[in-house]
Amino acid sequence: MKLTTTAALLLAIQGCDAFSFTSSQSFIIGRAHLQKTHGWTSSSSSSSVHPSSSLTLASSRNDIDVTDKTKSTNDNINTNTIDASSSIEDSDILAKLTSELQELFACTSIVYSYLAKEDGEVTVEDVVLACDRVDESASGEGCDDELFLNRHLSLRHKSHLFGRYHLLVKLLKSNYDAYIKTAEFLSPSRIPRGELPNVQDVAYFKEETVTNYLDEGGVALVPDCELDDMTYNDSSLDKVLLSIFRKLVAENTGGIQNDTPGIKGLLIQGRQFMTKELPEGVSYEDHTIAQHTMVKNTLGGLMTPVLPPFYRIFMSGIVPKLGTEFDGKQLGPWFYAPFLTSMVTPIFFGFLVGPSRPNRRADGQRGGLVVEKCKFLQESGCKGLCLHQCKIPAQEFFKEELGLDLTVKPNFVTQECQWSFGETPLPPEEDPSFPRGCLVGCESRKDMAGRKNEALCM
User: Fold this and answer.
1) DSSP string spanning 150-218?
2) Of the N and C termini of the chain, which has fewer Cβ atoms inside 10 Å?
3) CB of 426 within 8 A of CB of 384?
4) pTM, two decimal places
5) Which is nearest to 419 in space by CA: 429, 401, 435, 404?
6) Helix H segments across 5-49?
7) φ/ψ (deg, to 5) at 407
8) Cα(443)–Cα(217) distance, rounded to whole angstroms?
9) Are the CB atoms for 383 and 457 separated by under 8 Å?
10) What pLDDT digit, counting tens, does each position of 287-330 carry?
């Protein structure tokens, strides 16, 4: 039977019983009219329409309740999943931080184990074992490369490098000869030369071929450096300082100058002053004093009148003239003077000697400086210029004008040069490490060829 609009309305009204809306007076009257018109009785309509409508609406309500419960359950599951993920992430972060802290503690223990050794307790075997640890950490053995401290900072590797360096320093302090033998045995195969605390007496070549070179008069000569020349990249400061230095040299040599640029022009000035014709009765041995004075005056002019008094007071501990009984007395040098001087010197003397770096003195103390390959010596190839226009005047200037001892020890095989601030120098003739004779390729010797019984260098 097809439902009419009126029947549909009746169904709607019947369905309202399910929601208890039929108790209203208007709905009761409307329902009675429809039942009378269409022959539907309250019982028939109640039995045929109302139960079905009530079931349908009840089912809908149940479906809504189930949906809400399902949604609530899903929300709870998602919330639990997020909470679980957050907990896992927090646990991972905590685990990583713990691992990093453990590695930091392990590296600190490594460093302490090296530093805890007494100077006299360090042996060659200790240094060799440290080399093994350095090689292992460099290859990733014995450490977790996934950690930030090792992957990005190489902390464990640097800890062993630091420890090995300080073992060498302790050996240097306690037994110099053992240090030299150890350094020559392990460098450069296991320890790069640049990582040694001191190199002044460490042979560069394992087996040096001894060749006897003689000059025209049968006098022994010193072999030239066989290493490749270094290319120097002068900074703007280097160029300015070199320009000032050359002008001061011209003033202090009576006007000797030339148009050749750079360090080579300076060396031409120096060579011309060293080999110039001397007055009757004046020897070149006497002339060395004039060379020393020229260089010291030039260095004094370069430092200006301000820096030497400042250095004498705050580095060397010399009491200034204040009208007291202590005027001019030296209370220092202060303990920090050699070290600080070795840190500052590379900045202001690079224009003369080239790149250099702080290192240890022969006694193992701070205050050393090693010139990697001396620009002055490489470009001059002259032992006389090195001795009388660098080594001796520099030592005298620091002692006389600044109040600090200085030892300058050139290595003619490698053209390295060790500067040791606070170390008393030996006279060249008493220094066993300073060779006798002229360099094989020295240009100055050629200039002196016609002058008999005159030597420019010892």
Assistant:
1) HHTT-HHHHHHHHHHHHHHHHHHHH-HHHHHHHHHHHTTTTS-GGGSS--TTS-SSSS-----EE-TTS
2) N
3) no
4) 0.78
5) 404
6) 5-15, 25-38, 42-48
7) -115, 125
8) 16
9) yes
10) 999 999 999 999 999 999 999 999 999 999 999 988 888 898 99
